[in-house]
Write a structure and sequence with these properties.
Layout lengths: L1 H22 L4 H5 L9 H19 L29 H21 L2 H5 L1 E5 L5 E5 H25 L20
Antiparallel strand pairs: 1-2
Helix pairs in contact: 1-4, 1-6, 3-4, 3-6
């Protein structure tokens, strides 16, 4: 099971890089333009992913295993709202995105099967206590990213920019039949 999450983290990094390269083709005004999406603009949705990933990594950093691979996330400012616009400029967004993607990949390489079965106790953004198995949190974590990247891909396509193939299957090598 840990190897699946390693694959998801590699996919996450690759797709975030593709989104970044595609988004570079739009002007700042086009990136900030309200396009009627849940988080308004391309930048609004990109920022939501940074906010959500930061919140989740900060929660996971409080796990009793004290995952050393993500210790850096504790020093990042805690986002205040899910729609917080942390970065209005694409290069600054990309720098934080790159850091988070590196931390995510390192974390996925550090976790083991016992970690995945453990329970994370945390507080939701609205202050409610919650507890979930770490493997289920990671499933949500990666699914959430894919969901919003799909929205971003659509917004970019509507603006005339094609992100290209975004299927996970594109990163899975063919099996050689012996």
């Amino acid at each position: 099971m840990p190897e699946n999450f390693i694959l998801f983290s590699i996919y996450n990094t690759e797709m975030n890089q593709r989104i970044y390269l595609a988004a570079q083709q739009l002007s700042r005004e086009e990136l900030l333009k309200d396009r009627g999406a849940f988080f308004g603009s391309v930048m609004g949705t990109l920022n939501h992913l940074i906010v959500a990933d930061t919140l989740w990594l900060q929660r996971i950093a409080q796990h009793p295993a004290q995952f050393s691979s993500i210790a850096e996330v504790r020093a990042l400012p805690k986002p205040e709202t899910l729609d917080q616009m942390l970065f209005a400029e694409l290069p600054e967004w990309h720098a934080r995105r790159t850091l988070l993607d590196q931390l995510i990949e390192r974390l996925m390489r550090q976790i083991n099967s016992a970690d995945l079965e453990s329970i994370l106790f945390y507080t939701r953004t609205e202050g409610m206590p919650a507890n979930k198995r770490l493997k289920d949190i990671f499933l949500h974590f990666f699914n959430h990213q894919t969901h919003h990247r799909g929205q971003i891909s659509t917004l970019l396509f509507q603006a005339g920019v094609d992100v290209g193939v975004t299927d996970l299957l594109s990163l899975i090598p063919n099996v050689v039949d012996n």
